[in-house]
Write a structure and sequence with these properties.
- The chain is an alpha+beta fold.
- Helix content is 39%, strand content 20%.
- It has 3 domains: 267 residues, Metallo-beta-lactamase, Chain A; 130 residues, no CATH class; 121 residues, Heat Shock Protein 90 (2-Layer Sandwich), CATH 3.30.565.
- The chain is elongated and about 85 Å long.
- The chain has an 8-stranded mixed β-sheet. It has a 7-stranded mixed β-sheet with strand order 1-2-3-4-5-6-7.
- The longest helix is centred in the middle third of the chain and has 38 residues.
């Protein structure tokens, strides 16, 4: 995400580098899908508003600035869209200062112009975001059919408000034939428009002086963005390559994204290269439509509940390890524990999602907003904790489950089915391995003593001994079956997670006895896991049944749960092979 290493100062007029007599007022917003950034440029002969955004209050602020500019020198107003998604333009539709075509000329790529003129809520994402709009009149269609026939021949256009422009179309040889339109407003600096489809068919990038306005190109491979109606993997990859080639030319110094702060060209090159790498891996993703947004939002809530619990447990284990190490006179190692999961960062992310979810449920209930917020938080969580080092200190099952949950949501949001790598597996050895891993300490006293001559090995074993706590260590456990040769088709990782969640639920609700029984009925293997739950009201702390059911489906089976008095029993049905 753009972090703000460019040279533009937000909310202030400043010269446009490399464009004589042009000034720019950047209105930079925190990254969200409600409204884009806006960039207001004043030249001697025109006022250009790039992407007015999605909020009326943002448009009102821009209208005041435009009014001040016109008082200084009355000039025509052009509203230039990098693409026709509602978060980039819908805020101005009720603002008189931008009434079209009398007051302002809207300039959009021809494909986007057609979308806006027919009020296509699907292509503008209005349907997905719950922000439909009426058809608009677009004054200037850029790259209309047949534009190449008049390439290099200046064409003048006049508009009802008295505005005139001269457009010259060409292809950039330096950028692999990237289509370019040079739009001149009188004798002042011109605006160069480059057609860069992929995020949407009508996406364009703009250049004035040394500033390059990139729309949503930096985000076009993000989960929940890739797959929107009109997204095109092949076109995006080609556009990214052409823009990267364009940056090799002299003159461009600052890249202005549609969301987030401006960045320098070296940073943009690094970021766009990463976007291209991500885009290359996104073949055959599903379209992000309303139905999938609903599914993603529901999964987001379930997923984040479990992620919250897992991170809370892991942070608690690390805190205990740190405390013990401090008591043992190892303050440096104790302090390092706090870097493995930055608790403040994780808490802030999880609290932000919780607050957003509460506001979402009280407000307009636009599912994609919740799904995208979860994707944003999960992406940051994935970067926040040091998985490999954690697995050597606390229970690997905790760390692995957290990692898989984050990964499953990201994959699902991208439009793929959650990963499920099913294979034929003997069921009894698999169950025994899960139970053993939850019953036996990761290292023994003998391991600790035998490593006493090696400080590094001793510390590693000590950390693991302190940080791991076998779930079934003090539980009376039984496993009965007459089907020791039974094999099933199962995703081993997700099955392991499912059984672990179930056992945690039973232990957490007071069970001191757990019984596992394995049998079969027809072509299904039936695995029952039962415990004598002894704590009243435990349904409030149990895993979400819908979440467990979805996890069981990813493992390759179906799940039922029954309760009879003080007994809770889960039954997993898996296909035999």
């Amino acid at each position: 995400m753009p972090g703000g290493s460019g040279a533009l100062n937000p909310l202030a007029w400043q010269p446009v580098p490399g464009a004589v007599s042009a000034r720019i007022f950047p209105l930079i917003r925190k990254i969200d899908n409600i409204s884009s950034n806006s960039y207001l440029i004043a030249t001697p002969d025109a006022i250009l508003l790039i992407d007015p955004g999605g909020l009326p209050e943002q448009a009102e602020q821009l209208a005041l600035l435009v009014g001040e500019c016109r008082q200084e020198s009355d000039r025509p107003v052009f509203v230039v869209l990098t693409h026709a998604h509602v978060d980039h333009f819908i805020g101005v539709l009720a603002i008189p200062a931008f009434a079209y075509p009398e007051t302002a000329v809207f300039a959009v790529h021809d494909l986007g112009g057609a979308v806006l003129e027919r009020g296509d809520a699907k292509m503008t994402q209005g349907e997905l975001l719950g922000r439909a709009h009426s058809p608009m009149k677009i004054g200037l269609h850029l790259f209309p059919p047949g534009w190449e026939e008049d390439a290099h021949i200046p064409v003048s256009r006049a508009f009802p408000d008295g505005a005139t422009v001269t457009i010259t179309y060409s292809r950039s040889d330096a950028a692999g034939g990237l289509p370019c339109a040079r739009v001149a407003f009188g004798n002042g600096p011109a605006l160069e428009v480059f057609h860069t489809p992929g995020h949407s068919p009508d996406s364009v990038c703009l250049r004035m002086g040394s500033l390059f306005f990139i729309g949503d190109l930096l985000f076009a491979a993000n989960p929940g963005v890739a797959g929107m109606c009109g997204w095109d993997q092949d076109a995006l990859i080609q556009s990214l390559g052409r823009v990267l080639a364009l940056f090799n030319e002299d003159g461009i110094t600052t890249v202005c994204p549609g969301h987030g702060r401006a960045v320098t060209v070296p940073d943009a090159v690094r970021m766009l290269s990463a976007v291209r790498t991500d885009a290359l891996a996104l073949s055959d993703i599903a379209e992000l439509n309303c139905e999938r947004a609903n599914h993603a939002a529901a999964f987001a809530v379930e997923c984040m509940e479990q992620v919250n619990q897992l991170f809370t447990i892991m942070a608690g284990r690390l805190y205990y390890v740190s405390y013990v190490l401090s008591e043992l006179g190892e303050p440096d190692t104790a302090e390092r524990m706090g870097t493995l999961i930055p608790a403040d960062t994780v808490d802030e992310l999880l609290e932000a999602f919780s607050a957003f979810a509460e506001e979402h449920h009280r407000g307009e209930h636009v599912p994609v907003n919740l799904a995208l917020k979860a994707g944003q938080v999960i992406g940051k969580l994935e970067r926040a904790f040091r998985k490999e080092e954690l697995t050597r200190i606390i229970d690997p099952t905790l760390v692995d489950r957290a990692g898989r949950l984050l990964s499953d949501y990201t994959v699902m949001l991208r439009g793929f089915s959650p990963p499920s790598e099913r294979s034929e597996s003997p069921l009894v050895p698999l169950i025994e391995a899960i139970v053993t891993g939850l019953s036996v300490p990761s290292c023994s006293d003998e391991d600790l003593l035998s490593s006493s001559d090696d400080d590094d090995a001793f510390m590693a074993i000590l950390l693991s001994r302190i940080g791991t706590r076998p779930l079934l260590e003090d539980i009376a456990f039984s496993f009965s079956t007459k089907e020791r040769s039974l094999s099933v088709s199962v995703d081993r990782d997700h099955f392991t997670d499912l059984v672990t969640y179930i056992l945690e639920d039973l232990v957490g609700t007071g069970s001191d006895r757990v019984a596992i029984a394995l049998g079969h009925k027809g072509q299904c293997a039936l695995l029952s896991i039962a415990g004598n739950c002894r704590i009243a009201g435990t349904e409030k702390t149990s895993p979400n049944r819908s979440f467990l059911g979805s996890l069981c489906e990813r493992a390759g089976g179906t799940l039922t749960c029954t309760e009879d008095g003080n007994t809770r029993e889960y039954t997993i049905a898996l296909g035999r092979v």
